[in-house]
Amino acid sequence: MSETAKKKFQLWVEENHRDTLTLRFRVEKTLFSGESDFQHIDIVETTEFGKMLLNDSVVMISERDEFIYHEMISHVPLFVHPAVRRVLVIGGGDGGTVREVLKHPGVRHCRLVEIDPLVVEGCRKHIPLTAAALDDPRAEVTIGDGVEFVATTDERYDLVIVDSTDPIGPATPLFGPEFYGNVHRILEDDGIVVSQAESCLLEAEAQHSLIRILSGIYERVYVYNYVNMTYAGGLWSFSLATKAGLCPLVNLDEERVASSGIDFRYYNSRIHRAAFALPTFQAQALAPYLTPFGESRTP
Amino acid sequence: MSETAKKKFQLWVEENHRDTLTLRFRVEKTLFSGESDFQHIDIVETTEFGKMLLNDSVVMISERDEFIYHEMISHVPLFVHPAVRRVLVIGGGDGGTVREVLKHPGVRHCRLVEIDPLVVEGCRKHIPLTAAALDDPRAEVTIGDGVEFVATTDERYDLVIVDSTDPIGPATPLFGPEFYGNVHRILEDDGIVVSQAESCLLEAEAQHSLIRILSGIYERVYVYNYVNMTYAGGLWSFSLATKAGLCPLVNLDEERVASSGIDFRYYNSRIHRAAFALPTFQAQALAPYLTPFGESRTP
Q1: ipTM
Q2: What CATH number belongs to A66-286?
């Protein structure tokens, strides 16, 4: 094929934000494309970022940078809580969060509740880098509505991770007060809930709303930041809320990090602490809702 | 105009990385477009990010997020060095770095050496948010080649800021050893040089090369990270190299930060420290070249 012909036949996938900003990724081929009851799902082989999962044309993960998101959503709470045994992951059907959680030998059980079976099916088939973890004997995949699950389950968890998409479409209730009230109910007394908390720059309103809701329900609420390559808008955040007095800086167990033997690619103790240092504009906007750092109130 | 017609007449500007990743910004109108001896320059009014400057179709600054880059390239060294009086900025013809530098009342003189007069002309006319600072009586704009300037000047500086574009086109020599040898020559004994050090994810090779070069010339070399909204690839870095023993953590003057009265929007003491916490993959890649933190070697 001539260079001109090649140029003509380029394949790209595009994520569009409010028709004012788009990210486009060059694609070698489409691996999977399907319509579920909830959304359109695509898995493509990109030229630069490995395989990529998109829900309704929004990038969920790419093989090149998924380690950042998955390490930060998992290891931060797991090195703060003294002994996480039972973990609930809501969303995250790609399996990347479960993979990182299960790197902690103390974790006995990790339940994933994913609303969309097609996400799990597609990732199991095409992205074993993340989805292989779902076959671990300590992992249990439940296809169902996370909102309903936390409202009705009798189970109790040390850590709940809300690995959700943006608050549009099926994930909207995962950003609401009723959901977080039920998460509070199913957390052990020293439990932690960590959530995908949107971008403080591009989606500031969604972040403020989530943090406001959490601060009405949990004793302590914190925000920490990370950066990946394939999410638009630069700085993205997770929220971390605790039922009792655990503090993500005071209770960080650096010795355990150092001796864990986990093959971190992004996370480390310094990054853990640094992630809670917020830019001035973000700290000011969230000041009414965040817990200040300081002495642990744990007995 | 009908919605369909509007859709047809959308204007976008696009930054393309190696034909595998593009960022596109919706544009309301073009304000300035010109061809200089060095590059093509566009200033556009975007829908979401305010006015935006592009050199050869690469985003330099946008009004919405330029504060992040300009605060981080300036305030970090200015709060580490005990008393910066004379500053040299190479590149940065938009004026944003000069604006932040001049917020420090101790700075007596800030010379900007910009190779391309069209950048300065366009920004003076259309982006006063950054370029107005160039009219400050303490600022002096020199149109000329920064490489030649540092090779021939008799002046001496406390701080040199290399506010350059990517190492393609006119900025290539600003990433080379000869240039940094000459910067060393014109720095005072306790001088600092800070440079735009590319993305550790998307342009890792360019970053490694720069840090390797600096580590062969300067006593201490550090890297710190920041994130903005309009640069592709997520995490971006600055290098900080010192001639004598100043250390960006040990010598950070937090009292001076707190009492400066500067209207920071991104910077603060915690962000300053956090920026030097590198992700594991970056810390490992740069380990042979970076100075470890610790006791200051300053007498």
Answers
A1: 0.94
A2: 3.40.50.150
